[in-house]
Amino acid sequence: MAIHLKAARVNVDLTVVEAAQKLGISKNTLINYEKYRTKPSIEMSQKIAELYNTTIDDIIFFVN
Prior knowledge:
Blueprint: E1 3-4, H1 5-11, H2 16-23, H3 27-34, H4 42-51, E2 59-60
Parallel strand pairs: 1-2
């Protein structure tokens, strides 16, 4: 079952600021990913999935 990007972050009890720092990106970049304004690269998607203790396949990174 796929989960939205923001929900995946909340599930591991990280704030936007904490997650962005751990990923080496700005808070605004992460917010843009979570609001589906921009799409992360494959490499960044993998880093996010690892940080959120899940797989790329279990996170919704973009919506049509």
